[in-house]
Amino acid sequence: MRAGNRFSHRANHTRTEAPCFSANHPPSSNSFHREPLASASLIHFPVTPRAPPPSQTTRYTPPPFSKPTPHVAPAPCSLILPSDHSSHPASRPSPPSRMKELLSITASLRADPSPAVLCTLVGVTGSSFRTIGARMLWRPDGSYIGSISGGCLEADLMTQAADVLRTSRPRIARYNTAADTDIIWGTGSGCEGTIAVWLEPIAGVPPWLDFILAAWDRRENAALFTECFPHHTPTGAVAARASSGLSWTHPDHKDPFASERLLPDALERQTSTEMLAHRDHGFFCEFLPPPPSLTLFGAGDDTQSLTYLATELGWRVTIVDSRASLLNTTRFPSAHALHLAPPETALASLPLDARSFVVLMTHRYLDDLPLLRALLPRPLAYLGLLGSRKRSEKILADLTREGLAITDDMHARLHAPVGLDLGGGTPEEVALSILAELQASHSSRDARPLRQRLLPIHRDQGRLESLVSAPPRFAAIILAAGASTRLGQPKQLLLHKGTPLIVRAAQAALDAKALPVIVVLGAHADKIRPALAGLPVFIVENPNWAEGMGTSITTGFSALHGGVSTFGSVLLAVCDQPHLSATAIEKLRAALDGRHTIAATRHGDTGGVPAIFTHSHFPTLRQLRGAEGARRIIAAHKSNTALVDLPELALDIDTPADWQQLNSP
């Protein structure tokens, strides 16, 4: 089944469940295994540099190995790896971060590969306690790891999970906490939202999860494509990609659209796309960055508290200190790695980059001075210095006298004194103050009280904020449902320079980086569909094509429904303009300069297709009926419409004479 047949609008149900008729793929024999170290160990080892990641797209084959490779540190630096306690997670932990949640689920699947059910939050409309991508692993004994809600939906999810495990049939469950039945399904939560949850049977660690963890080990972003479809094999996670270009694809998944367009787009935008669905099926593209990395210099009591709190939130913590009496796994059992070495020596071996968060907590002036000298010029994500403002200013003044030119960027990057003003002075209170600022910085928030926040709380669920904080997505709808009665044959299949007109139009939108490209077919759909084979487009059929172009526009927008609010603009184009090109489309996009909400092609004194409409016009476009086309909307918003001169698009093919004119010398 092509992806084009799967992409349409989401049905609105209070609580529905849709069984799928194929179980998720079993764990592959080529998936690799990580065994935890039996106990903490002090390790000395020579430098063994890793091979750099490939620069081009390469298919990923998981390498067989049994034990994680520890970070390489040059002598005399010693690396202490804490004991791994994650293989015995609590059966009912408090909701952790998504990354920690996934790591805890993985540890459980490794320790116990018996059949279980994995629940994933794949769609949210309105408000929700958790963001998309939240997961819960349910075991037949009633224990579970992770959460989907604040506790109001888990009981019903467990009932459904038991049925999924019994039948080996995945399903989508939907809950509407905005409806009157919220008193039943949401226990009166009043969340005012609708969520979709994908439930699938699972046994052991599947290959896609091994791929994601391997990417995280390399400190790479990853993206995962999950299909939630009935009557389709495979289902569940079918493709994944890392930022280095490495990729994994389920051996039975043949559609290249996810690997070639959706996953690279998710990695580029660094955002997840909520499930785009129609009735009982859909798909979900998820962005999965590695756990944030925090390096702490100093192993005092406040570092202990900060390490504990940070690891509870899913941060990967590395601690550096030269005092073996303080830096040990007894004091820091949850740390990712401990470097027993003088701070300046350890700096040479630490993989600090633009995504690294660093806090200096040595409490020793003579240690902080050289550390700050070395770290200030680095483009770190965050650099904090513990101590009073007077102490921080003295260190900076000394560095300036030594000849370090402290730029405005360095000042902006340095948080000194580190932390938010929460009050208190105990190690635990200091740690909370620091972690609060770290979390705000990592989430690009200003740490204001939520009651002062004007935008939705969750960035990846916020409709308004997604338009403000991320580049607007650009979609295209190619209208090709007409019967071509005046021409006497399907114009969509006419060859111009050896290529069918329908293919030329779709390729122009693809070259202009529209995503997705939706092709609306109607008459002659069975004849036209094969011409689009191999193109990464979504094909939808308009059963009411004979009623006019308005029905095709609404059909195209129905295919975007469920994700339509994440698009900044949509191109409407027809297939019978043989000179349509990516250049023409880009000129239309450039005309949307902030003052105009429509960019249309000039046809005499009026505007027409191709035309691009911004999101403010989506409600009207979705309600067009019959022969109503986009011209009516353009005419009604003349002051907001930019007319673009594209003389090459004056010719469209409606009659044999038009076709003869195109091919005349």
Write up this protein.
The protein is an alpha/beta fold. Among the domains are: 293-442, 3-Layer(aba) Sandwich (Rossmann fold), CATH 3.40.50.720; 472-663, Spore Coat Polysaccharide Biosynthesis Protein SpsA, Chain A. It contains 19 helices and 29 strands. The strands form five sheets. Strands 2-4-17-16-15-18-19-20 form an eight-stranded mixed beta sheet, sandwiched between helices. Helix 6 (301-312) links the parallel strand 15 (293-297) and strand 16 (316-321). The two termini are 42 Å apart. Residues 1-78, 80-96, 181-190 and 459-471 have low confidence and may be disordered.
Distance between the termini: 42 Å
**CATH C-level label of the domain at 472-663:** Alpha Beta
> Radius of gyration from the CA trace?
28 Å
Uncertain residue ranges? 1-78, 80-96, 181-190, 459-471
Strand content: 15-25%
Morphology: globular
CATH architecture of the domain at 472-663: Alpha-Beta Complex
Placed side by side, the strands forming the largest sheet appear as: 2-4-17-16-15-18-19-20
* CATH topology descriptor of the domain at 472-663: Spore Coat Polysaccharide Biosynthesis Protein SpsA, Chain A
Total beta strand runs:
29
- What is the CATH homologous superfamily assignment of the domain at 472-663? Spore Coat Polysaccharide Biosynthesis Protein SpsA, Chain A
Question: Biggest sheet, open or closed, and with what strands and sense?
Answer: 8 strands, mixed
Helix content: 25-40%
Mean pLDDT: 77
